[in-house]
Amino acid sequence: MFKRANYVMLSLIKPSSNCRIMEEFQEEFQNNDMEYDNDDMTDTEDLSEGIDSCTLEPALTNGEEFVRCGRYQFKTAAYVDEDKNAFTFPRYIRREDAVIEDVIRDSALPFLPAKSLVRFKTICKGWNEWISRPLFAHRQAYSFRGMSGLFSQLSNGDPSFISLNRMVYGIPKPPLNFLPEPVQIISTCNGLLFSQGHDDDNAYYICNPATKDWKRLPKPSLYHVSGPAAVLAFEPSRRIGVEYFLVRAVDLVYQPVIQFEVYSSTEGSWKVSDSIYYYDKEILIHGSVGFYMKGITYWEISPGKALAFDLKEDLCGVQPLPSCSWPRGVLTEMHGELCYVRAYRQGNECKIDIYGDIDMKLKRTIHLNPPDAGESSWGFQALPCLNSELLIILVGKRIYSYHVKDQKLALINSAGNNDMRYLPYVNSLVSLSC
């Protein structure tokens, strides 16, 4: 114990200097403690008095600066770097040892597509280890959401990938050859892909085409006659772990009824929903390219009508579409809103109509003049897309991207086909096991 502290050092300094001060400060008090033993305790002053209401007030005594705390005075001695005032808090604190490599690694890499990141692994051992970490893959899946290209496939044919930019986006070739059997692509969502095997078993697979990570799903309980009308639902989040759902809309045999069956990656099993949709007219649910957005899956089942299923509420219903929607349009998301995009030819002019709002009213019409628009009277249609400012259209055998804001039309592929199934893809590192 000690009667009175002789001095205190107060400063705003670097952490390394602060450690040195604290060591000197502690040594001073230890020396003071050794000068007093238990016999002197009766003569010591009570230092607790006035401490609870202590306020620091600068004062001058004999020309020297002190800080008054209650009825005690403490002399201050501050280390000041670069002529800075120790009593003025800096406007910002700069990390002096930060280098550009660390800034890029922490703040830029998660926003890049998978193909670019695979290339960056070769820069150095440190980057290879950093990009290979499961936590980084989780951050990248959450940060990068841009559309990278399209998967295309004919019925029972081999799948192919159409990149929007071959230098930036890509997957290992040939696509999906890492799966145990040839498959038919059914649905994609935020970097994950759902497919069905061609063998008699009709196995279901969820995979990431960029990382070759895949998983076989258990068999569902509801029987379907033809190819499944299924939608993959996956929303990257900040929470550690990957949670996805697969929603099947099953048209019951000899009954005008559609039931829903949901697979949950968290539960690892299927569950038949209590929600049932009854219809009085023939619908085309099988083969319909489904769409997922904000917890709801959609299937276009007839002109002017889409079947919707809410995963959270376990409810189904009908989403109205433009009466002229069938069959050359697609559901998509633009600026956070569910929209319907329809492409058609009117005379010698090509048009794209964009519908939105709850009642799916016409919001915008885009006039296009592709160089090969007159080559085919059929084959002008909108393809699925993800970017709010990007539309994908098929004109004959050519696939174009149209940037809505810049009003620019760009050719991305010349091997299109009306009979192909096209699905959008995000070049993500998302892992099925994290």
UniProtKB/TrEMBL annotation:
Entry-linked PANTHER family: F-BOX DOMAIN-CONTAINING PROTEIN (PTHR35546:SF100), F-BOX PROTEIN INTERACTION DOMAIN PROTEIN-RELATED (PTHR35546)
Record organism: Liquidambar formosana (Formosan gum)
UniProt protein name: F-box protein At3g26010-like beta-propeller domain-containing protein
Xref: Pfam families: b-prop_At3g26010-like (PF24750)
F-box protein At3g26010-like beta-propeller domain location: 185-354
